[in-house]
Each structure stands twice: as structure tokens, then as C-alpha cells.
Amino acid sequence: MPTFTALDGTRLTYHLLGDTKDTADAGEVTDAPPLVCLPGGPLRASSYLGDLGGLAARRPLVRLDLRGTGESERPRDASSYRCDRLVDDVEALRRALGVERLDLLGHSAGANLAVRYVERHPERVARLVLVTPSVMAVGVDIAPEDRLAAARLRKGEPWFDVAYGALEGITQGRATPEAWEVIGPFWYGRWDAAAQALQVADAVEKNHDAIPVFAGEGAFAPEATRAALARCTAPVLVLAGETDVAAPPGAMAEVAALFPAAELVVQAGASHHPWLDDPAAFTAAVERFLG
For residue 71, with 0-12 CB atoms within 10 Å meaning exposed, 13-18 middle and 19 or more buried, which class applies? Predict the structure, then answer.
């Protein structure tokens, strides 16, 4: 896998999927700009993103393994896992790719890193895609009822009653490790074999020791970030899942409103992993936005 060196000497890995050559209408072959993808978790190996539902067949993808995850090295300084400090790794990747500006995608917790990158390097972002984004970096509050309302769209599924009861407990401050396991089906539009496999992999693909550092003190400055996003000139797509309890559509509308001209797409029947729930709908929305 291609590697590059971060500012502190940590060796980082990225995965290139798809063809970087594109055939234009006139028949000439041109370089197709890659879409740089920042994984969530937080600090989960990028492998769970796969080819984003086949998007790699339409646009080359660069999946970054954040430091200490996947095939990237663990840093000597554990405090460098903090979200704001990871911005330097994204900028080092841009330089390694040799591009002036990035088309950037952040999923879930990776969206926090994406918006902090926009905040610090606005001139380096051509287009921004936020997929079911976490809202820690921008300080949007998500009401418990909004999460429960999204969950109730799944009523009637065989696992619903037990999972909904656990989710109610979590929203009321009674979270337990068992409750987090029980609500797993809510993260996916279909609780099928593929979703269950992705959920099992979640436990082994994360750098659990680093997770508390990612959102530690100093990682986020919501007021400053919101002010920077209000000046963002890059086109922005916020893609939400209709039934996503982690990032309900109402909260995603608030995220989109932070930008001067962001587009909100709510994917029907999708949850927190929309490329898995309906690959065709997901890839069509992202490809149309990227042009």
C-alpha cells in the first residue's frame, strides 16, 4: 500500500481504489481527481468503507488509515490522536498526492476531522461530502426524541422491541455496554449478514486506546469551527440516513445550514452506513454532487 510520512515522522498508509484515468467526451484520457475518504469510528481502520458501494468504479478513492489504525503506524506521542492534531496528517496526505485541492469525504466521526481541516485549510478543499456526520466539532445538539423518532421507523422488525428499549435507556443516561451491543441493528438500514459482519468487525478495527484522546480536551472549538464553515466557499453535500439514530435528518439539516450553500440529501431507508444500505442511491447522490 502507498505510504507517506507525517510531520512527526509517523508512517501513514492510504489505499487507492479505482482508476485515476478518466475518458472525457472527446475521447482523450485525463487524470480523474481522487476523493479522499476519512473513516469514522472514531479511529477505525478505513477497510470498513470498502469501495463505498461501488463509488470507486466511478471516481478513484483514497482511503486514509488514520495513525494507529489499519496499516498505519502508531505514533510515539499518544496525544497526536486528538482530532485537531490529525488535521496535519490530512494536509501531509494532500502534499503526498501532489494535488492543490482535495475532494474530501468524511464519514461519521471522520466528519469532525474533515470540518476541522476545512477550518484550517479552506483553500485546499474543492468539494466536501459529509456522510452521516458526527456533530462534536460543530456543537449541534441532538435531542433524544429525534433519535427515538428515527428509531421508530424500524418498528415491526423482529429485533425492534429489545433494541428500542435499550436505546431509550441510553438517551435517558442509562447506557451500559450491553445496551450499546443491543442497539447495533439501528446502525444499518437492513440487519442482514453484511450488516452483522460489519458490526462484528467494528470491535476489532478500532484503536480503542486512542478513542478517548480523539475527542479529548482541546480537540474541538465549535464556535471557531462554525465561524469558519460560514465562510466556506466549497460546494458541500451532507448525506443523511432517514432512519439514522446517530445522525437524525433534523440534526443533519442543522449541519448543512452551517455552510453558505450546502445541499442536504436524506437517503430513504438508510441508516448510518448508507453505501451499504442502498449502494445505487448512495453512489448516484455522491457522483451527481461531484460532477
Answer: middle
| 207-222 pLDDT tens trace | 999 999 999 999 999 9
Average pLDDT over residues 38-48: 98
Strand segments, DSSP code E, in the chain are 3-5, 11-17, 21-23, 29-31, 35-38, 61-65, 102-107, 125-131, 236-241, 262-267
pLDDT at 27 > cutoff 60: no
Three cell numbers written together for 71: 496499516
Q: Give CA–CA dist 276/189, Å, rounded.
A: 8
Rounding to the nearest 10 degrees, give the CA dihedral for residues 118, 124, 126, 128: -20
Is residue 153 helix, strand or coil?
coil
Under the banding of pLDDT at 50, 70 and 90, the label for residue 21 is low
DSSP state of 188: S
CA–CA distance, 12 with 69 (Å, rounded to integer):
9
Strand partners of residue 102: 125
What cell does 171 get?
438517551
Cell of 159: 429485533
Mean pLDDT over the full length of the chain: 95
Distance, CA of 62 to CA of 80 (rounded, Å):
22
Taking each continuous run of H as one helix and of E as one strand, the counts in the chain are 11, 10
pLDDT in tens, 72-124: 999 999 999 999 999 999 999 999 999 999 999 999 999 999 999 999 999 99
Distance CA 24, CA 217 (A): 48
State how far the Cα of 102 lies from the Cα of 151, in Å rounded to an integer: 35
Closest by alpha carbon to 138, among 232, 30, 63? 232
Grid coordinates representing 59 are: 471516481
